[in-house]
């Protein structure tokens, strides 16, 4: 979204908080501005806060080749406060001054050219785009093409929602009249008539279809080669065997590949998270999909995108989620009471968010909930073996370890392990724990005790360590790091 904005605009106003300083998103914005070769005006915000430090911001920006005028550079820096409105006019004047110096001009005549900034679906108006006009003058009734959609302009409105009849270069404008929803970033071009617009859109759709067919043919060819190779290997494997022997081998192989048991099938399904993404505008959905593209923890839990789109959550979304046992995530959209009640009846989760970071955190938590719990060992006590001997019980001899508790305590009901030279030789439970001749349940630090294991074949050696521990289940967390 930032990259697209930098390509569309002529001047970038870089907003940096005076209390936070340069953040990751600031560095990313600077890079996009440099890539697009667009000049920067620095707006240092939140200057009304007591902890604000504008000079610190300017110094931090030096390491990213953004040199303010105070330090001998050409970047104007304006101290502002969005909360109080301080210096907002000074920021506007700095922007206008830079535009005059750069002699930024546009041609208001000729066919309209522009760029789609955002697109969304309005209940009363249908598909709506917000756009920047870069050339020509847009008027009501103009025929436009953007991506694989076209429009006859029925209505235009400005940034305040006021209806306008004309939009000149550099004006942000809302456009109503699209047949389909264009994508954010699509180039807008004016054509002479509706038949011409349909012709252009049909050609673009045809080209996209041809491109898809090429990719499909490439995949088919790869699969064909794989099958040929598998067939060749199978022929080599069976060699000159009689057909009866081949049939018997195939029968045995098929028998081994039996369907998954119910438990295994449930486990496999629990390691897949199908999701449906709905956003208020095309750019929001694009940003969410870009973040999901960074998912790299499929070995833990597969993230499956079932459907995505623009607009409020619908009954169709709920039905899809029910079919795939998925979760619906909505960003800046609503779900009517009827939809929420339907989802509750069908056992479908609907999660609505206003902040994109919170939505991704929620997605991470949902992925983590699908992972099996980690088992962690918590040590309760440690003891050293000082002597070994055996006692006779009935007709068998039971090896006994004479120990002294060095740390914590030994609790008979807990789990134990025997360690020799750093290697675990045994894990299990105790049969007995005694102090002198008395049975005890706990042996504390400094106490001597004798113990026997539930494994008779284990031989104790002086110097071995006995560790008493308990196992606790800890909720696993996904290793996916979306980068913020």
Automatic annotation (TrEMBL):
It holds the Pfam family IF-2. Keywords: Coiled coil, GTP-binding, Initiation factor, Mitochondrion, Nucleotide-binding, Phosphoprotein, Protein biosynthesis, Transit peptide. The keyword Magnesium does not apply. It is found in: Mitochondrion. Residues 206-237 form a coiled coil. One of its GO terms (cellular component) is mitochondrion. Residues 1-105 form the Tr-type G domain. SUPFAM superfamilies: Initiation factor IF2/eIF5b, domain 3, P-loop containing nucleoside triphosphate hydrolases, Translation proteins. It comes from the Eukaryota. Its main location: mitochondrion. One of its GO terms (molecular function) is GTPase activity. The keyword 4Fe-4S does not apply. PANTHER family: TRANSLATION INITIATION FACTOR IF-2, MITOCHONDRIAL, TRANSLATION INITIATION FACTOR IF-2-RELATED. Monomer. One of the essential components for the initiation of protein synthesis. Protects formylmethionyl-tRNA from spontaneous hydrolysis and promotes its binding to the 30S ribosomal subunits. Also involved in the hydrolysis of GTP during the formation of the 70S ribosomal complex. This is Translation initiation factor IF-2, mitochondrial. It comes from Vicugna pacos. The lineage of its organism: Eukaryota, Metazoa, Chordata, Craniata, Vertebrata. The gene is MTIF2.
